[in-house]
């Protein structure tokens, strides 16, 4: 059986936790930050969890994990 290919776009954007769940960077923290509140910008720094519906697709894209 040949080796499976990793989807590089998914590998660059996602991190896997120790329990096997996936984390992603939140959108909206790059520019136009003056109008956003400090609380909102602080929340955007933290990782977001990938939903369980999406995790099946991500596991197919990353066959060997990260």
Features:
3 strands; 3 helices; 66 residues; Factor Xa Inhibitor; three-stranded antiparallel sheet; 36% helix
- Name the structural class: alpha+beta
CATH class: Few Secondary Structures
Number of strands: 3
Give the strand content.
5-15%
Helix content: 25-40%
Termini separation comes to 21 Å
CATH topology: Factor Xa Inhibitor
Overall, the morphology is elongated
Count of individual helical segments: 3
How many domains? The number is 1
What sequence of helices (H) and strands (E) makes up the elements? HEEHEH
> What do the pLDDT scores average to?
95
Q: Radius of gyration over alpha carbons?
A: 15 Å
Q: Report the uncertain regions.
A: none
By CATH, the architecture is named Irregular
